[in-house]
From TrEMBL:
<dbReference type="InterPro" id="IPR044492">
    <property type="entry name" value="P_typ_ATPase_HD_dom"/>
</dbReference>
<keyword id="KW-0112">Calmodulin-binding</keyword>
<keyword id="KW-0479">Metal-binding</keyword>
<dbReference type="GO" id="GO:0016887">
    <property type="term" value="F:ATP hydrolysis activity"/>
</dbReference>
<keyword id="KW-0813">Transport</keyword>
<dbReference type="InterPro" id="IPR059000">
    <property type="entry name" value="ATPase_P-type_domA"/>
</dbReference>
<feature type="transmembrane region" description="Helical">
    <location>
        <begin position="378"/>
        <end position="402"/>
    </location>
</feature>
<dbReference type="Pfam" id="PF13246">
    <property type="entry name" value="Cation_ATPase"/>
</dbReference>
<dbReference type="InterPro" id="IPR004014">
    <property type="entry name" value="ATPase_P-typ_cation-transptr_N"/>
</dbReference>
<feature type="transmembrane region" description="Helical">
    <location>
        <begin position="1035"/>
        <end position="1056"/>
    </location>
</feature>
<feature type="transmembrane region" description="Helical">
    <location>
        <begin position="228"/>
        <end position="247"/>
    </location>
</feature>
<keyword id="KW-0067">ATP-binding</keyword>
<keyword id="KW-0106">Calcium</keyword>
<dbReference type="InterPro" id="IPR006408">
    <property type="entry name" value="P-type_ATPase_IIB"/>
</dbReference>
<keyword id="KW-1133">Transmembrane helix</keyword>
<feature type="transmembrane region" description="Helical">
    <location>
        <begin position="432"/>
        <end position="458"/>
    </location>
</feature>
<keyword id="KW-0812">Transmembrane</keyword>
Length: 1087
């Protein structure tokens, strides 16, 4: 494709986001305050602007699930205060230490304070907390260093604590658990209070109180309380139902928030690595740390290699701090920026600075989504129209009333100047005012923006079952607009169950990858040393003789298992030699290495990484006679061909090499050693191994489903280009060998070398990017966003964080993903499966579709209710739907309607359409057609009943009061049934069969059944409250028949074709034409 545009941009106004390191300006592109295409990292003033522009009846409820801008500022201030306090304490301690140093050389070590009796331990929680908080190195020395401290805590630096439950419970009792007191969520009564804050409901309650007082005064308590009491009761029911719905919704968010905080990590217990929840860590635990992990507790370093920690979350300074035995203190909440190591947990929960910080701030789940903001705009527009209508009705009815044109049910004039009592006049005015206010209640769709939160809460809960944890609400709906998914290969498209199936050792291919009989002992010894020492994984051999347990990343596990098959005794090898320096695996360099000091004081540097990269650094290989043979061009080609052959069969190729060093070339000083760079050249090739990682079952079908849905899947992997190509063909990302050419298939360094304009030109064509670095992934995301794509990106490494943050939707892997990647993401894929990513797309589209269903349903009710009351008020001075009836209709429409339609599960039909542009009209032409047909039908039928009802019912000769009430009851009943039947139509706006899957949605069926039962009770038994009379069975059938007609009418309506061009565009063109004509006329007059 050319750089001109994207085929995925469906709508000419849908100017999607772009790239650049500063990010494309998604926020100030339009003047409309309700048009925020991307709320991710939106500026506070932009968010404040739409809130101020919204017409809101109940701010506390409407903005409950949006970001509390005031709280966000307070949170920043609290964090800053706690950080400053901690830094002041540390600075004072360092100042004191420096002063003592200058005055009397070094201060004499003080004896550690007498321990407070704390169970069986020789150290108190207070001593430990003070030591780590103040970074008091002398206190650690007084405890006897890390080993002495471990003894006092009854733990082993190598094997950790015992796994038995009583020991863990005892430690929790003495030192506390790794949790912190959280502020309690709102209770039910707070939601009741919030529901009461609705301006119109408050006005109605005041009007009800006035009506109640006047009614009791004029008619006595027995009869006079009905008018005011019925309105008050209806308002209370509305408040109660609203509060229950909101409360249940908040509990869902609370549960999801707890799930987000439940980090899984590895600890060493009883000599074996086990995965546990961060909340289960206890003092004395030995915790393994690697790049991207969050430090889960305060503690001290046991051992580490190139370990560097980002302490910005605690200090506020973006400074990477190196950790070694001179600076061993680790703070909870910080992130591991580089290296790996183990730590001893000394303080947990509230005894850590992180715990104090988290206990001081409340977790604010508030975050607006683009759809929520847009719906506030729709609600504001409809609300203004409704307000104008309500004011008009109020003026017309009051004018008719006070000029003597209004008559009661007995055909008597209601107000005669000088004759009607003040009480009757006020009572009549209150009734009129109540109707006008109730019209506002119905007209302002307060529940419309809240329906987004409702459907998102429902979707998030259901997505957990589909192995997706939503961290940002907006991502859930944005996923429905995704036009491309940039997916990792390993673990996402493949199973992540690697095994070594092929090996080239001693310059030739092995018959069996782990057959030691083919190998000389010296080569086997070197390979085992390399496998055991150059790893972040571990091997645990149970004493009971059970199967060995191998832990680590899938690649590490496969190579360790291969080492075990070669005869490796993991613990023995690691105890014989020691790692003196390490270069942790780096996704930029695609390799990792260690320097190992052997018992004979020899130093071996071992490297392991991408086969072609390690091979390029080798100058020799070891043959079957254990002799070093120079790598000539012929042998290099032989190995390259071997790598290509393995890659073509979708094997991941890893090379293992080493270099012996002479003692004088290795630094002996610790400071020099910490900055020493491991030699990367003149290596001796020991082995090239091929790891098989099969494709996930069902991934090909998932990719095909994306293609059908207009979502392009791209593979972005650090693996060899040939391996990536083979997997892409297997998964269906590449259709055939013919597609496997540039630029469809491209290497990361080739893409990186292009200019920005060239990158934009090829980005859309890329299907597979091999040997990519995290920066290449970021450049691709930026280019795709500039081309108008809505980009979803998967990532698991720490270096993936910028791409995850830059993407419209960042998807972190739940199993292999680091904490840094997860924190930068919007959604965590819990099973690392691409099929789960596709399910997220379905749910995203479902959110949008459900909101559209609800809009169609609600606007139909709005238009019909307003039209009926306005026409009746203007023509006859009376309204057929009174305040109580309108409140019941509002309840059906707002709360119950949202519950029924916003919780529809996704269907396969959603994946048959193209992605929804983020600025496409919310109300499509199909919706306008359906809405107008139903509204016109309802208005026509009900107005006929209003004006000709008595004739149709043959009740001209009945008493006026009963005849009018019967007619109005029929209108009310027919109106409610029309909404109930139309609720089924709203389920499938563009499908003929509106009943498909309806029985599976129990909530929908339950709400429809509940509405019907309540309607029967209202009409048959609550006539005094609702001003209705009991209807005969014939009139019940008439009401149901009026509702039923909406079904065949909807089918006929769907046969009417609609223009693809949005209706709104026609109005824009008319406005532009009129403006042009006016300007043209003005110019002509001036000439």
């Amino acid at each position: 494709m050319s750089s001109g545009g994207s085929p995925y941009r469906k709508h000419r106004k849908d100017l999607e986001s772009g790239g650049g390191s500063s990010g494309y300006d998604d926020y100030e592109s339009v003047n409309d305050p309700f048009d925020i295409a991307r709320t991710k990292s939106a500026p506070a003033d932009r968010l404040r602007r739409w809130r101020q522009a919204a017409l809101v009846l109940n701010a506390s409820r409407r903005f409950r699930y949006t970001l509390d801008l005031k709280k966000a500022e307070e949170k920043k201030e609290i964090i800053a205060k706690i950080r400053t306090h901690a830094q002041v304490i540390r600075a004072a301690y360092l100042f004191q230490a420096a002063a003592e140093k200058t005055n009397g050389n070094f201060r004499t070590p003080k004896a550690p304070p007498s321990p407070i009796p704390t169970g069986d331990y020789d150290v108190s929680p207070e001593q430990l907390a003070t030591m780590t908080r103040d970074h008091d190195f002398s206190a650690l020395q007084n405890f006897g260093g890390v080993k002495g401290l471990a003894e006092k805590l009854k733990t082993n630096p190598d094997k950790g604590i015992n796994e038995d439950d009583s020991n863990i419970l005892d430690r929790k009792n003495v030192f506390g658990s790794n949790t912190y007191p959280q502020k309690k969520g709102r209770n039910f009564w707070r939601f009741m209070l919030d529901a009461c804050r609705d301006t119109t409901l408050i006005i109605l309650m005041v009007a009800a109180a006035a009506s109640l007082a006047l009614g009791i005064k004029t008619e006595g308590i027995k009869e006079g309380w009905y008018d005011g009491g019925s309105i008050a009761l209806a308002v209370i029911i509305v408040i109660l139902v609203t509060a229950i719905s909101d409360y249940k919704q908040s509990l869902q968010f609370q549960n999801l928030n707890e799930e987000k905080q439940n980090i899984q990590l590895e600890v060493v217990r009883g000599g074996r690595r086990v995965k546990i929840s961060i909340f289960d860590i206890v003092v004395g635990d030995v915790i393994t740390l690697k790049i991207g992990d969050q430090v889960p507790a305060d503690g001290v370093l046991i051992s580490g290699h190139s370990l560097a920690v980002d302490e910005s979350s605690m200090t506020g300074e973006s400074k990477i701090v190196t950790k070694d035995h001179k600076s061993p203190f680790l703070m909870s909440g910080c992130k591991v920026a580089d290296g790996y190591g183990t730590m001893l947990a000394t303080s947990v929960g509230i005894n850590t600075e992180w715990g104090l910080l988290m206990a001081s701030i409340s977790e604010d789940n508030g975050e607006e989504t683009p759809l929520q903001v847009r719906l506030n705009g729709v609600a504001t527009f409809i609300g203004i129209v409704g307000l104008v209508v309500a004011v008009s009705v109020l003026i017309i009815l009051l004018a008719r009333f006070f000029t003597g044109h209004s008559k009661d049910e007995h055909e008597q004039v209601e107000f005669i100047a000088g004759k009607t009592s003040l009480g009757d006049a006020v009572d009549g005015a209150i009734k009129i005012f109540t109707v006008a206010v109730t019209i506002v209640v119905v007209a302002v769709p307060e529940g419309l923006p809240l329906a987004v939160t409702l459907t998102l809460a429902y979707s998030m809960r259901k997505m957990m079952a589909d192995k997706a944890l939503v961290r940002r609400l907006s991502a859930c709906e944005t996923m429905g607009s995704a036009t491309t998914i940039c997916s990792d290969k390993t673990g996402t498209l493949t199973l992540n169950l690697m095994t070594v199936v092929e090996a080239y050792i001693c310059g030739k291919k092995m018959n069996q990858a782990s057959n030691t009989s083919e190998l000389p002992s010296g080569v086997t010894s070197l390979l085992i040393e390399s496998v055991a020492q150059n790893t972040t994984g571990s091997v645990f051999m149970p004493e009971s003789g059970k199967d060995i347990e191998v832990s680590g990343s899938p690649t590490e596990k496969a190579i360790l298992q291969w080492g075990v098959n070669l005869g490796m005794s993991f613990e023995a090898v690691r105890s014989e030699s020691s790692v003196i320096h390490a270069f942790p695996f780096n996704s930029e360099k695609k390799r990792g290495g260690v320097a190992v000091k052997r018992p004979d004081s020899q130093v071996h540097v071992h490297w392991k990484g991408a086969a072609e990269i390690v091979l390029a650094a080798c100058t020799a290989y070891m043959d079957s006679n254990e002799q070093l043979v120079p790598l000539d061009d012929g042998k290099v080609e032989y190995f390259k061909k071997a790598i290509e052959d393995m890659a073509a069969r979708s094997l991941r190729c890893v090379a293992i090499a080493y270099r012996p060093l002479k003692g004088e070339t290795v630094p002996t000083d610790e400071e020099e050693l910490s900055i020493w760079e491991l030699p990367e050249g003149e290596l001796v090739l020991l082995a090239i191994v091929g790891l098989k990682d099969p494709c996930r079952p069902g991934v090909r079908e998932a990719v095909q489903l994306c293609v059908k849905a207009g979502v392009k899947v791209r593979m972005v992997t650090g693996d060899n280009l040939q391996t990536a190509r083979a997997i892409a063909l297997e998964c269906g990302i590449l259709g055939s060998d013919a597609d496997a050419t540039e630029p469809n298939l491209i290497e990361g360094k080739s893409f990186r070398a292009l200019s920005e304009a060239e990158r934009l030109d090829v980005a859309d064509k890329i299907s597979v990017m091999g040997r990519s670095s995290p920066n290449d992934k970021l450049l691709l995301v930026q280019a795709l966003r500039k081309l108008g794509h809505v980009v979803a990106v998967t990532g698991d490494g720490t270096n993936d964080a910028p791409a995850l943050h830059e993407a419209d939707i960042g998807l972190a892997m739940g199993i292999q993903g680091t904490e840094v990647a997860k924190e930068s993401s919007d959604i965590i894929i819990l099973d690392d499966n691409f099929a789960s990513v596709v399910k997220v797309v379905r749910w995203g589209r479902s959110v949008y579709a459900n909101i559209q269903k609800f809009i169609q349903f609600q606007l139909t009710v709005n238009v019909a209710a307003l039209a009926i009351n306005v026409v009746a008020a203007i023509s006859s001075g009376d309204v057929p739907l009174n305040a109580v009836q309108l409140l019941w209709v509002n309840l059906i429409m707002d709360t119950l309607g949202a519950l029924a339609l916003a919780t529809e599960p996704p269907t396969d039909h959603l994946m048959d359409r193209l992605p929804v542009g983020r600025r496409e009209p919310l109300i499509t032409n199909i919706m306008w057609r359906n809405l107008l047909i139903q509204a016109l039908y309802q208005v026509s039928v009900l107005l006929v009943l209003n004006f000709k009802g008595r004739d149709i019912l043959h009740s001209q000769h009945d008493p006026d009061e009963h005849a009018i009430k019967e007619k109005n009851t029929l209108i009310f009943n027919a109106f409610v049934f029309a909404q109930i039947f139309n609720e089924f139509n709203a389920r499938k706006p563009d499908e003929m069969n509106v009943f498909k899957g309806v029985t599976k949605n129990r909530l929908f069926m339950g709400i429809v059944g509940f509405t019907v039962i309540l309607q029967v009770i209202i009409v048959m038994f609550l006539g005094k409250f609702t001003s209705t009379v009991r209807l005969s069975w014939q009139l019940w059938l008439v009401s149901i028949a009026i509702g039923f007609v909406s079904w065949p009418l909807a089918i006929v309506g769907k046969l009417i074709p609609v223009s693809e061009r949005p209706f709104a565009d026609y109005f824009v063109d008319i406005y532009a034409y009129c403006t042009q004509c006016r300007n043209g006329g003005s110019s002509a007059r001036r000439n």
